[in-house]
Amino acid sequence: MNAPAQAGTRRGSLLIIGGGEDREDDMQILERFIALCGGPDKRIVVLTAATRVPERVWSIYDAAFGAMNVDKRKPVHVASRLDADDAATAADVAQADGIFMTGGDQKRLLALIGGTKLDEALHAALARGACIAGTSAGASAMSAHMLADGKADLHPEKGAVSLGAGIGFVQRVVIDQHFSQRQRLARLLTVVAQNPYLLGVGIDEDTALLIEAGGGIEILGAGAVTVIDGRHMVSNVADIRNRKVPEMVDVRLHLLPSGSRYGGPCDTATPDALSDFLKIITNIA
After folding, report:
1. Which of the residues 16, 150, 215, 259 has the least number of beta carbons within 10 Å of its own beta carbon?
2. 178 is known as an active-site residue
3. Catalytic-residue membership of 232
4. What stretches pass through the bilayer (predicted)?
5. Which CATH class is domain 13-281?
6. Per-domain residue ranges for the chain?
7. Please, what's the b/e burial string for 151-176 (b: 16 or more CB within 10 A of its CB; e: otherwise)?
8. CA 271, CA 258: separation in Å to the nearest integer?
């Protein structure tokens, strides 16, 4: 696991996207990504390791970033762990002003890059001040505890969801995506029931959670971000069989719609109930 930032160390920003971001019309989220990178004249790389069709996915973002006048854009295709351990590729990523991780399968992404030079390069880029964005699978992979597999349709179910090791930019959270559109509240509740130490973060499509270098957060796009806090929960999950619905009493749910902004130097009105979440989610490494 990577060490946390030392006091005074410059940090970049994270743009965590719930998938399905607009890539053709107003492109609000992608435009903000480019701004966070420093503008269209900066160097952008698109990491396609999560998908089995990298050229097809790259063509979509190539067109989108090209329409925004980003000339210094290039794909980083990773087909094996040997590719992810290539020193030249890692150096290219470490020096980029922005890295965009596409959707696909987060398990594939971590199987290819976890613990490699490319993994180290992502953390080095963030520490240097780059913006790292991830959509869909790329969003789920950003946390240290990654939602890897499973579903719960109507209610949370013990044992229905499994976690894996993520990249680790943020700690003590689990990120789910396509949240409202695929009705994943029960799935995220399942995670929190079994892991009350972790906060559940569900991000809607065409919606992004921005974690800023200055310690604030902002919600962008068309939807909302749902936060589930089970740290004070009373539950019988340890005593029931797998696939049974757990009792979950005193679970907090926060709904943060687009336009919500908390923390940072300009905000003095963060509700007490969100203050712990803000401290946890902005402790990026």
Report:
1. 259
2. yes
3. no
4. none
5. alpha beta
6. 13-281
7. ebeeebbbebbebbebbbbbbbbbbb
8. 17
Q: Coil, strand, or helix at residue 240? A: coil
- Among 106, 123, 226, smallest CA distance to 166 is for 106
Question: With 90 as the cut, is the pLDDT of residue 104 above it?
Answer: yes
N- to C-terminal Cα separation, the chain: 10
Question: Is residue 29 a contact partner of residue 64, using CB atoms and an 8 Å limit?
Answer: no
Sequential DSSP letters for 205-253 = TTEEEEE-TTSEEEEEESSEEEEEE-TT-EE-GGGSPTTPPPPEES-EE
In the prediction, which pLDDT does 266 show?
59
In this prediction, residue 272 has a pLDDT band, given cuts at 50, 70 and 90, of confident
Per the residue annotation, which of 178, 212, 218, 235 is the catalytic one? 178
Query: Which of 54, 88, 92 has the alpha carbon at shortest distance from 73?
Result: 92
Among the listed residues 13, 21, 123, 136, the single catalytic one is 136
